Amino acid sequence: MEEGRRAHTAIVGWACTTLCLVSYAAAFSQGASLSACSDMMPRHLRVQLHSSSNNYVTVHTNMSFFFPGDKVPVTVRSTRDYMGFMLQARKVSNNEIAGTFIFLPPGSKLLTCFEDGDTVTHSDKSLKRNLSFVWKAPDQPIGDIKFFISIVQSYFVYWAKIESAVVAQGGQN
Fold it and tell me: Which PANTHER family does this chain map to (predicted)?
């Protein structure tokens, strides 16, 4: 009798663990969660952070400065495939998220961290490599910005907050 109870408990435990793992993994296959907004860190099980200085991803723009209201093209290039990402523009002065994304490639979607469309994340777990976006600066002055991207190569390996060069706000005194 005791042996049957142990077997039943083991099966129920295995089923619960499997269902929890599947639902947890499936949740992140459709984009980053809002809990990642401030630190841009994935919330996967047993995920391993890799040094952002030793990555294979670059984020850049062909503009060295912008004016309020400008549309800024942003390109993410990679030498390897990855599944997920989170992209934001942040003010250099205080690290606050700024502006909105107005053009997204397939396989991505807008996320509202602090205001509508201020963050972009993946919408599926298809493999990605080179992506292009357009970011719109707010109509009021915000100062210099940098773009930051976190990349998830797999459920267990990621790079956090890879940064672009500074994009200066034009017309400042």
Answer: CYTOCHROME B561/FERRIC REDUCTASE TRANSMEMBRANE, REELIN DOMAIN-CONTAINING PROTEIN 1
